[in-house]
Specification:
The complex is a heterodimer. Chain A is mostly helical. Chain A is built from 8 helices and 2 strands. Classes of the chains: A mainly alpha, B alpha+beta.
Amino acid sequence: MNLDLDPAQRELVETLRKTASTGSASEALDAAGVLPPGAFEWCLVFEELGTRVARLDLPQIDLLSRAGYAVGVGRGCLELAQERAGDRVIAGRPLIEFQGPAHRLANVAVDLAAARVGLWRTAWWCDQGKVVAEQAAAAAAACVTAAVGCAHELVQIFGAAGTSEPDVVRRYQAAYELPALCGSPGELWRAAAR
Amino acid sequence: MRADPDERQADLVAAVDRTAAEGGTALEIMARLGGERLLAVHYPESHGGRGLRLADHAAVCERIGALGLPDVAHLITVQAVGCTILEYGTEEQRTRWLPEIAAGRLFASLLLSEQTAGSDLAGIQTSAVPDRSGWRISGTKTWSLFTGWSGLALVSARTREGTHRYDGISLFLLDPSSPGVTITPVPRAAGEPFRTVTMDEVRVGPDALLGPLHHGWRLLPTAIGFERAGFDYLTCATRWLAAIENEVRGLSGERQQDMATDLLRLRFEVDNARAFAYHAVNSAERFDMDEVTAAYAKLACGRAAQSVARWAGIELHSGSATVRSAVAEAPEFTISGGAQELQLDLIATEYPIGKVMR
């Protein structure tokens, strides 16, 4: 059992990260010139698209990819929040050095990483030819919940500015669009348990 | 990326099952596993192992725990004490201790924590002073496990004041039956009691020093690193969840249906924790794991076990032995091996999630 990316998967992610496009999903894929070979790779692609909150204009995106997008939305929130917490100085110390905000950030990071592990495992099984409908619903539920948690921490780290800073507001709103994209976590868990 | 064990790990697990199936006491089974070179597969062949990777050893550890064998004793002995000897011991120390450990004939314990030095292991008061060619060790160690089984203990002691708080700490190998050692059991909410170990001018020879004098602190990641991947918590999470799922199957259909979603969430959480734990051991250069990845793993495993225990304690209230034991033991899992605050500090300040899975 190993969660390290293969070289080709790593290259795929790096290529997408180097692509400056902030437009739609199809523009980003065209600019990067990549065609992911399997469900796992599509999850990686959609995660990167989620970090930039790219508009999803691709037809028939499956639930695993949508959950990957949710991970990306959460990761984008988390990375912006961590950057801000490192830069923002309060009482002479960076905010990240205070255990209160630092631990809240770390907790949502663990939740998001765990959701992503569940998603990756499911996508890997899918690529092995297994039927994963129930696991996909569970993974999507966890990804949406974790992403929303990250969005709230992002706003909290920015403080009052978090309610008006356009990039923060955009990401927060994107997190609350995820239930419409993936299904509500409650529905997804119930579907998975059936 | 691979989401299930590889063939070699599957073969090792099957070998553990075959050996354990012959029956006997836990100690007899452990000795048979040692005889098959299964207890320390990551040790070199010359020291009783098979020269495999830490991740292969992890697969064996998980199986030993799943079979209800003393996985914590195994982990402390083979990994914490044994690997520290393997990495930092003299050839004489390696030759003397490792084959016995790998064969399951010798158990070892860790004497690191003290009343005021639990999560902060640099705060120790135990001292070792030169005595002829060896040392005299004095102090009191707390929260030690399986010391009653042990023929060997790894002890931390101050050997000088030090220019900073991590300087001046040395590690020693001690026979817990030596004159001057008093072992007192301390009842625990669940499981094997803790032992408080008092050392009153216990004399050890020059060959007891493990690693460099005054610079033992840098050996500790090897000594306690594997514990920090959370495999022992994972074992509990897995075992408790299986027992609870079995208990739920005995309830009415309606109650089973009510609980299905909760059980699925718990299964998902435990499976994710397992993936983290294996990822952490895969990150290891020899025996030392990436500490941030290990922090994710320890938190995920400890919290998964706590989630299972908490759910069962609230929802099942069956009074079964498993539920009682889980509820009693679970709080330790975000305290022992370094309180969760230490892992949260690491995760928050080191690097964001994007680099956790490389």
